[in-house]
Amino acid sequence: MPDKDETKDRLLNALVAFADAARDERTLSQQFRNAFLAHCSETPDNLACMDRVSLRTVTDTTGSTVRGLALSDSEELLVEVAWRLEDLSMPEELKAQFPHLTEEDWDAFTRLTTVLFGLVSCRES
After folding, report:
1. Please, which pLDDT band fits residue 86 given cuts at 50, 70 and 90?
2. Closest CA to 58 of 74, 82, 37
3. What angle do CA 31, 82, 116 make, to 5 degrees?
4. S-S: 106 plus which of 16, 60, 90, 114, CB 3.0-4.6 Å?
5. Is 85 exposed, middle or buried (0-12, 13-18, 19+ CB in 10 A)?
6. CA distance 119 to 122
7. Per-residue confidence at 75, pLDDT binned at 50, 70, 90?
8. In the chain, how long is the greatest CA-to-CA distance?
9. Where do runs of H (alpha helix) occur along 18-123?
C-alpha cells in the first residue's frame, strides 16, 4: 500500500497534468479520480465527490474554450463557482463554528480557493 507522500505526489501530478491540453480528458479524469481516492480514501463522501467532479472543456461567457475541473452535470467550472464565492460574506454557520475568523480571513480563504482551482484550469482558445 502506498504511503501518504506517494499518494499526495500522485494526486498533485494528476492535477498538474490537466494543463496538458494534448491529453485525453477521460484519461486525465480517471487518473485524477484514482489519485484522489488513493490519497483521501474511498469513503462515501469522497466517492460522491468524485462522481460529481470531472475534467471538462467548456465555452465560457467570452466564447473562450476553457478546460478545468467541473461539476459533472453542468457546464460550470469549479474555478467559476469559487470566484462567485468571493462575493459572498462568510456564512453564519462558519462564524458560529469559528468565531475568531474575520471577514478578511474569509476573503483570503475564498481568494486562495479561486486561485488554486484556477491553477488546474487552462484556456485553450
Report:
1. very high
2. 74
3. 50
4. 90
5. middle
6. 8
7. confident
8. 46
9. 25-40, 44-52, 78-85, 92-97, 103-119
